[in-house]
Amino acid sequence: MIKLSKIEKYYGTYHALRDVNCHIKEGEFFSLLGPSGSGKTTLLRTIAGFEGIDSGTVMIGGQSMDGVPANKRPTNMVFQSYAIFPHMSVAQNVAYGLRSQRLDKAKTAEMVEESLGKVGLAGYGERAAHALSGGQRQRVALARALILKPKVLLLDEPLSALDRQLREEMQSELRRLQRSLGITFVLVTHDQEEALTMSDRVAVMFEGQIGQLDTPQALYKHPASKRVAEFFGAMNILKAEIIEVDRDIATTQIEGLGVAELAIPTGASAESAFCVGVRPESMTILDDGEQAYAKETPAIVTDVEYRGEMTYYDVAIEGSGKPVVVSMRNTSNRELREVGQQVRIGWESASAVLLLDQ
Amino acid sequence: MSKRILTIFMIIFVIFLYAPTILLPIFAFNDSSIIAFPLSGFTFDWFKSLGAADELRKAAGTSLIIATSSSIIATMLALLATSATVRYKFPGKGAMIGTIMLPMVLPEIIIGVSLLTVVLLAGLKLSIYTIIMGHVLICTPFCIAILRSSFQQLDPSLEEASLDLGESRATTFRRVTLPLIMPSVISSLLIGFTISLDEFVIAFFLSGTEPTLPVYIWSQLRFPQRIPSVMALGTLLLILSVVLLTLSEFLRRRSARRLGQTSTSGAL
């Protein structure tokens, strides 16, 4: 649906987008995830036509967008500030883009009501726009964009201004809306949880580049680099040394834990600088006599953080400079460990991922 | 103690500012052609005499034409200048704003003399048009000051949203930008009108055979017996100015409220 190739953009001397290549499929919920200043919003505005590019091509629906202004593109946008026209009613806002279609009043009213219904605001048409709550503004912005039946809906951090409960509600609602309409959604967010729960695929951006592009599961399980890994949830980063390489498998000495055979991430050569990431939940504090794991490492509990369904332990492992975090599900028969207690950490090769050290 | 001193200072300050202005309406209703206390009686005669003076009515008409055209032209120029300077970055922007705003602080007599020189060098005849030219020059900075704050408060994504929904830049201006800044536009028109109406120095230098109201008033001061009439005229002008300025500020604040901001900046 959207094909971006070799996109470069400068703001003066600042290199905002560097060699961005990606292909967003039709009907996909695609997210651009990254810290602030990573270029994700710039990339979205490039697709919308608000920002020019210095080189590269943007194709939407098989057509080059070169020289096509924002008002002629088959995309519609939901702005971070929602950009609801304050001098109009809800219905006038929603009907705004219909003017050029020259529909009669009854048809317009019918379409407005249908669009408002889709976002759960049926009957709100006569309200003044400035009297709406944050969540309602968001819905009006959606209805106003969707009434034009765009091929692509662009969403610029649409949930960042909402409180937590409303945000979670809108997350599932956006997902439901996207599935039922089958429109391609491109979402910009800095919230990794939002990207994971809503998207079919996520492009993680750093410094104007796409660092990794994959499904949420793959990004979580097989991050390619340290910064991608750290972006998604907690990850223990350990120093690593490659002992031997056999095609794409590297026998790796991991700081504190020992030796494991790990897959080299795609696109990396054996000569690159690596480290190893281990998720807190992919290690276990073993019970007495438990032998369920291939590898064991002795450790001492240095801190216990109880968080309801989970408990996070900081454990000191000999040979590792900083404490390693291990999380345990609080099942009914499991007792909490205490600080200073000697424990065995169970893990296996699959618990660890080889990461590019960048 | 210090609070008391400040209060006294404040009272003296206000008296100093407004006492001369208050004298105007007092003598406009005084039943004597001599401007002196004690007052001798109350009369509307001076106001009635205004209606009979033909020259005065002509001067008032000239002033209205000049004030209306100057404020419209200045507001249009200010609209162009603010939309360019608030929305876009370009080299020399700071210098450009500086040069446009300069007439605000430049002595009017300098502007008057230089414009007169230009007009004479160009071989033009002094007329209503030359005064309008001078007034546009001094009104534009004030109009920019008013419009600028309202442009800055306007969320740029509102205009982007309109483009995104398929409208061209021109229709976006008509359907979104203009309605949202309309109160400021009206406020700018009113301020421009008031400034032009009251302006004397430039009008004095650039007027030909048709004097403006302030120039006419000045010419009448030579005849002592007409001074009370001038006072009556001044009273009317004073009331008009206050009404226009109040209306303009009221509109500007309402616009700020409508855009969802509370703002106290602006002309007043």
**CATH fold assignment of chain B:** MetI-like fold
**What is the average per-residue confidence, as pLDDT of chain B, rounded to a whole number?**
85
Please tell me what the overall shape of chain A is: elongated
The CATH class label of the largest domain in chain A is Alpha Beta
- The overall number of domains of chain B is 1
Count of individual helical segments of chain B:
11
CATH topology of the largest domain in chain A: Rossmann fold
Question: What CATH architecture of chain B do you see?
Answer: Orthogonal Bundle
- The low-confidence runs of chain A, each spanning 5 or more residues with pLDDT under 50, are none
Alpha-carbon Rg of chain A, integer? 25 Å
In spatial order, strands of the major sheet of chain A run 6-7-8-3-9-10
Q: Please state the overall shape of chain B, judged from the principal axes of the Cα atoms.
A: globular
CATH architectural label of the largest domain in chain A:
3-Layer(aba) Sandwich
Largest sheet of chain B: none
Tell me the greatest interface. Answer: A-B, 24 and 19 residues
Oligomer: heterodimer
